[in-house]
Amino acid sequence: MKKFDKERVLLAVAGPVIALAVAFVLSAIVLIASGKNPVEPFALMFEQAGFSDIQVLIINQASMYYIAALAVAIGFRMNLFNIGVDGQYQLGAFMAAVVGAHADLPAALQIPLLLLTAVFTGAFWAGVAGVLKVTRGVSEVVATIMLNAIATSLIVYMWKPDVFGVKIGNNNTTGEMHESGWVPGIDMGAAGEVYGLVILAVLLGIGYWVVLNRTRFGFDLRASGASESAASASGVDPKRMVLTAMLLSGAIAGLAGLPILLGDSHTYNLNFPTGIGFLGIGIALLGRNSPVGIAFAALLWAWLDKASPELDFHGYDKEIAVIMQGLIVLSVVVSYEAVREWGLRRQQRRVGAELAAGHVLGADNNTTKEVAGR
Amino acid sequence: MTAVELAGITKRFPGVVANHDIHLTVRKGTVHALVGENGAGKSTLMKILYGMQKPDEGTIAIHGEQVSFSSPADAIARGIGMVHQHFMLADNLTVLENVVLGSEKLYGIGAKARRRIKEISDRYGLDVRPDVLVEELGVAARQRVEILKVLYRGATTLILDEPTAVLVPQEVDALFDNLRELKSEGLSVIFISHKLGEVLSVADDITVIRRGTTVGTAVPAETTPRQLAELMVGSELPTPETAESTVTDRPVLTVDKLRLTAPGGKALLDDITFTIHAGEVLGIAGVEGNGQTELVDALIGLRHADSGTIRLVDEEITAWPTRRRREQGIGYIPEDRHRHGLLLEAPLWENRILGHVTERPNAKGVWLDPKAAQEDTRRIVQAYDVRTPGIDVTAASLSGGNQQKLIVGREMSHKPRFLIAAHPTRGVDVGAQAAIWDHIREARREGLAVLLISADLDELIGLSDTLRVIYDGRLVADADPATITPEELGTAMTGAASGHLEHEETPETPADASTSPESPEDEAR
């Protein structure tokens, strides 16, 4: 049986490794085609990863990518495509910023209050799509895309000074949050500060794994993703599961902007990062919806983001990193499917082989046989 | 004249031999049956012949000419066609579109293709209408479309993989007529099956394969099913007959005037009333598509009755959701195990949890208990003889029979009070079939109530204590399994008889009396 375990690890790693290799090669080809040195940019970016200030930037950025990708992954695990993570986290962060600017509780209450505000806002926004899907059969893809657009407009509206907005120079903000809602960073000396909520990202990752793999609910969710028909026959209420998964996905999505909001910006302004929800889709894909895989993928993405500006100083376009991100997503989709099919076939063959060779479970390990059951 | 000759075919997979020194000679213009248990190596052999896998040793000759296939396209070019057990048709396309799909170059996609389809259909008596949507076709018609698809691509040798598994006796006869038509036109058919009676009735030659090698050939005229089965499994042929009755008078499942309608208002099930007692197997006979699926769905809770009641022992469960029904002791062996019974890409132990996620040993409170589930999976694997190298392999890597044994083991492990067994041995080899029958019989002795739905009339008659016939969503007739013959049952399944079926007495006055008020209504729908 150990053999099959090794097999699973091999299969799990083969997909991303192939995808990354292909993406590197294709990016190099793009560089060659534009008459550039195909190796130096990567060397430069690798070099960047060695600097501690860049490392802090990478970790900070990755924490937000990670949370967004978890939100996407929850949906993916049951074949729901929540493209609305972007709108959900922006609204979540916006509402948290508004509450943080107006409520002033002791930190021990203020921070949970802000987290819950973000969670409920995100869940509510995703829940709209969930309700539409289970009651009217509206595709969650379409609904969440629309909701993204609505969220953007809603934020523009709420930025108006007579709603929640505070104009600071030319910048729209939600006003400075009370300090009780600031989450202190982890001081790294000259390198800067790691957001305190990086811890939250880690906890969410652990929670994600535990819920999916160790709870009945997680089993039902995974079963629904693997086979809707088998899940219903097993007693899962498909509508309830869709709604729950959407709410959960939205709840996590709502948190994606908080590391920077509570750790650095302390207001939601025009400079607040956008698009993290979309990047989360690619990161969840690359990470195969596994909490560890997503962590690697988020770090990789953050590295490409934070190391690429250096390229501009050496005569390369930093957009090569964006091209690379795109190529990774493309090759991931292809290579995972190929590896999955190859793995299934390979296992079928091997099981056939083992059986024909007489390696039947119980044929030689009779010790464990009779204890179970009664 | 030989159409196909396989000589000395050996196929090794790392560490093992799947096919060993196989010899198979198919004469032109004959139906050649390939029989063997699941996992005996039939599919590997057919994959080799169809170009999906390359043999390590041995030769393939088509019409006397030695060939080497590297893909199914090569095999098709040589006139080899395959009709898969699971149909590969797009429901939302018409027959014409399905047939030309992928072969647009042959006769285009328009009038010429339509003409060609008509031509093939008429020539072989396939009765295929090119412009009907596939979703409107029944199983038998879909199969004919599959056959036509293969012929359209110019096949002269057809491989049919368990073609009768999904058909009722009358449809099987029609299929066999088609096959005879094909062979009279000089085509050759390789017919894979483990239904021995059918093999004997349609085949001209029989090759038996066991444990990866050809163990013998037989001439149908000189062989009995029993001899063939013994050749196939190397042991006695099991029979589904149950010895003494274990029926009690304690009702376990009581269904009263159950009615289920389709969105348009058409009744899918109407006035379904029956009681199953502890220790009783109630068999439902019927041509597929007459409400069996809906009945099962209504009992397991995938669809809810529009009217009528379902009671489990003394509780009314009509409004219960599926999970509650399963927790309260309804076991479910689904008709389509791939769609409703398994997570194919999940390991066996997760499949052991499926459907019983809230119950021990799979869960403690809201938490899963993977250790206990794995331990119990090992027990099931051994107790139910699931042939697998381990419990971490995916369900997809097991053969159909072993998948089914896992499902049966899982359902029985929760001590159900009532078991829904829909086609429990469909696509399962003789050995596994006997094991599954034994498990059902044993549980029945301990007071299990079973609803058995099957297309295998021998199985129905052999296992059931009571038989009912379902036709157009109604239970139209009942019969005593001790006296009824498969032929009589088959007739009733077409709706030609109703009331109580008596052996060797054509249903006369009482039957007619109950038919007449019903039939106009049937016509109306």
UniProtKB/TrEMBL annotation, chain A:
Protein localization: Cell membrane
GO molecular function term, any single one: transmembrane transporter activity
GO annotation, cellular component aspect: plasma membrane
Stretches that traverse the bilayer: 9-34, 54-76, 88-105, 111-132, 141-159, 194-212, 242-262, 320-339
Coiled coil: none
Keyword set includes Transmembrane helix: yes
Keyword ATP-binding: no
Membrane topology: Multi-pass membrane protein
Alphabetical keyword list: Cell membrane, Membrane, Sugar transport, Transmembrane, Transmembrane helix, Transport
PANTHER family with a match to the protein in the record: ABC TRANSPORTER, PERMEASE PROTEIN, GUANOSINE ABC TRANSPORTER PERMEASE PROTEIN NUPP
Designated name of the protein: Simple sugar transport system permease protein
TrEMBL record, chain B:
Top-rank lineage group of the source organism: Bacteria
Compartment(s) of residence: Cell membrane
InterPro entries the record matches: AAA+_ATPase, ABC_carbohydrate_import_ATPase, ABC_transporter-like_ATP-bd, ABC_transporter-like_CS, P-loop_NTPase
Name assigned to this protein: Simple sugar transport system ATP-binding protein
Domain ABC transporter stretches: 4-236, 253-497
Chief place of localization: membrane
Annotated region described as Disordered, given as residue ranges: 489-525
GO terms for cellular component: plasma membrane
CDD domains for the chain: ABC_Carb_Monos_I, ABC_Carb_Monos_II
